[in-house]
Amino acid sequence: MNNLDPPSSTNKSSGTAGIAPPDIRRQTHGSTEIHKRETDLTHPLFDHSYPRARLKSRKSFRTVESIQPDQAASHPLELWNRWDNTTNEAIQPPKEQPPSGRELQRKDWVTLNRARAKVRMTASTLHKWKLRPNSECPCGNQNQTMDHILSECTEGPHCTDQDLRDCTDAAQAWITHWRDKI
Q1: Which stretches of sequence are listed as region Disordered (predicted)?
Q2: I want to staple 146 with a disulfide (CB 3.0 to 4.6 A). Which of 118, 153, 175, 181 is the partner?
């Protein structure tokens, strides 16, 4: 089986979208193709012997393990559970179902998902990118981060990761207040 890279801060969109990451979806599809190739007499590649791979950098579907077609539906979720090591409580646990809040307007939905993933253009981020002279929050805190804005800042309402995950009234009030400010 292929080793899957652990999620990074740049790959949190799968959890907020409610779909398995692309690597896992590709691996599952390849595994079902391998099963067809091994068992289906009418498959064009049945009993075909492949030449040695010329390029090590190319990942062929031939390198994955075969799975039964009836396991194909649960296989991505099993891989995703093993792959997901996030400790962010705002992102739903791996399941192929859209997260709560999908009925919001697009701008609110984007703000919600960015808050869930903790990636917004806060003063701290802008300072790190050298687009702002300091990382100070208007409330007086020395460092304006997403965690500060969510739970400590006196400039607006507060909400928890649980509120963001469930899209509660507190999260919607937070979104309405902060969507145009950060």
Answers
A1: 1-58, 83-105
A2: 118
